[in-house]
Amino acid sequence: MRRACHRRCVDAGVPEGARMPLSVTEQHRSSERTLIRTAAGVSWRFEHFGAVAYVGDRDDFFAIDQPHAKLLVIAQQSAGGWVSGTDADRAATLAALGIVQTTPATPQRAHLGRSLVGDFVGLPELSAPLVLNCFSTAHCPLRCVYCHADDLMVPFRDGEGWADMRRVLSTAARVPAMVAVVTGGDPIVAPQRAAWLLGRLAGDKRLVLDTSGAGDVGPLLPALRRHRVHVRVSLDSSDRAVNDRARPINPRYLPRGTSSSSAAHETLRRLAQAQVAHSVQTVVGRHNDDLDALRRMRDHLLSIGVRHWVLHVAVPAGKAERRPEVLPGWDVVDRLRTLVAECATAGPLDIRVTGTHREPNAVLLVDPRGQLCVQRPHGPGKEVLWADGDTDQAGLLERLRQRVDWAGHASRYLNGTLEPAPQRMPALSR
Predict the structure, then answer these.
(1) Labelling 95: which of 180, 192, 326, 398 has CA 20 to 30 A away?
(2) At 140, which CATH number?
(3) Does 63 lie in the same domain as 170?
(4) What pLDDT, on a 0 to 100 scale, did the predictor assign at position 357?
(5) Which regions of the chain are under pLDDT 70?
(6) Which stretches does DSSP call E strand in 191-304?
(7) Tens digit of pLDDT for each residue in 309-340?
(8) Cα–Cα dist 278/304, whole Å
(9) Which of the listed residues 76, 110, 144 is the one where a domain comes to its end?
(10) Are residues 99 and 226 in the same domain?
(11) Which residues contact 366 (CB under 8 A, 6 or more apart)?
(12) In-domain check, residue 194
């Protein structure tokens, strides 16, 4: 089976003869030559259409067509490689997205649309998963009114132990995703567990950590720096009162009167100070789906130095399945389209929009007991696809192939919510 590994994925699946070691004397000798190197913190794997790359500092995936993908092979050489002409233009496109570095330097730019580089008709079919979400704890310091993971937290909190962590790790190792998201619950509640999981996942996958920011991120900072983890901090509104009503604290974990908004801002400040790559993620529900409120949030993020923003449309799952009044209006995606279009001139802010409300079974989750799950396509609750020891590797991949919405999976991570993805199913790599 091909593994999506940030140390090995540049070699995985390379066709015979596709690797192109190029000496300087073999390069074009044009005065407009460009030197390209793979950028730090970037993973990629070959696909039938070219390649898919993950840029850790931006927490962005990009599907790349074959003419652009061949440059990744050149860029991975120890000293980089020289290109000219059309390939130099293509290298500049990749460098502007943080995928490669060029000499002369190409400044990075914000990205707002579908995450496609080159010539594509619709979103491509993928050979394997992009992202796997892994629970490090079922405990959380907040009680968000729309909590998607409520059904994966409350029943699992009692008796949480280290044996569960080993099952989570075992399951995660079997899923050929490029990126693992350490989540919960909230990893900030149990930093030792989160650091343990990050350290063991780092050999296989790029890493993201999801947190409310409502707690002390300090104990996690060494692991976040060591493993080059991108941290997503949840914040729903620039209005503290609005945010705190939607994301109230749980007095079991935090003192009464604690503001989830203030805590998130403090965590963002500490991450920036520690030079840990980070972004803000916002759940769009009835509390904040007004376009003016979203504009204020955009402007607020720019004012505090945040450059990466993920917008998740609230879904009728977890707690929100029992409280439909917290869900956004039916035209929420139209409003988000308007917002994103406006942001093209508002400032250097990357924006990704996920529409899990339209593709419910597109997100892969390893629950607190190590079971691989997806949201049910119809009805409440999660569907367990696999449990540790339940079946062999081929059986796991077959269940993924049959039960996951792969077009929705591609759409979620390639910013396809703003334009629907074709309904296609990949033949997963073995």
Answers:
(1) 180
(2) 3.20.20.70
(3) no
(4) 61
(5) 1-31, 346, 356-358, 378-380, 388-389, 391, 419-430
(6) 206-211, 230-234, 278-284
(7) 999 998 887 788 888 899 999 899 889 989 99
(8) 12
(9) 110
(10) no
(11) 132, 133, 134, 135, 168, 171, 172, 175, 372, 373
(12) yes
Kindly state whether residues 412 and 289 are assigned to the same domain: yes
The reply to whether 123 falls in a domain is no
**pLDDT given at position 113:** 85
Point out which residues pair with 62 in neighbouring strands: 53
CA 261, 264, 266 angle in degrees (round to 5)? 110
Edge-first strand listing for the sheet containing 50-55: 42-47, 50-55, 60-65, 116-117
Residue type, 193: R
**Given this model, what pLDDT does residue 360 score?**
73
pLDDT at 427: 44
pTM exceeds 0.85, yes or no: yes
CB 175 within 8 A of CB 129: yes
> Are 11 and 88 found together in one domain?
yes
Residue from 369, 381, 374 nearest 396 by CA: 374
Count of domains observed in the chain: 2
For residue 108, give the 3-state DSSP assignment. Answer: coil
Contacts of 118 (CB under 8 A, 6+ apart): 50, 64, 65, 66, 67, 68, 90
Give the angle subtended at the CA of 15 by the CAs of 9 and 17, to the nearest 5°: 115
381: nearest Cα among 306, 428, 321, 427: 321
List the domain range (segments joined by +) for residue 82. 1-23+31-110
Q: Is there a single domain that holds both residue 86 and residue 160?
A: no
Using CA atoms, how far apart are residues 52 and 72, in angstroms rounded to an integer? 10
Considering the domain boundaries, does residue 207 fall inside one? yes
138 in the same domain as 273: yes
* Exposure letters 362-387 (e unless 16+ CB within 10 A, then b): bbbbbbbbbbbbbbeeeeeebbebbe
Residue 17 lies in a domain: yes
Length of the chain, in residues: 430
User: What integer pLDDT is reported at residue 228 of this predicted model?
Assistant: 97
Block residue for tokens 């989570």 = 168
159 and 263 in a common domain: yes
Residue 96: Cβ within 10 Å count: 17
Instruction: Identify whether residues 136 and 79 lie together within a single domain.
Output: no
292 Cβ contact list (under 8 Å, min separation 6)? none
- Nearest CA to 361 out of 129, 139, 145 is that of 129
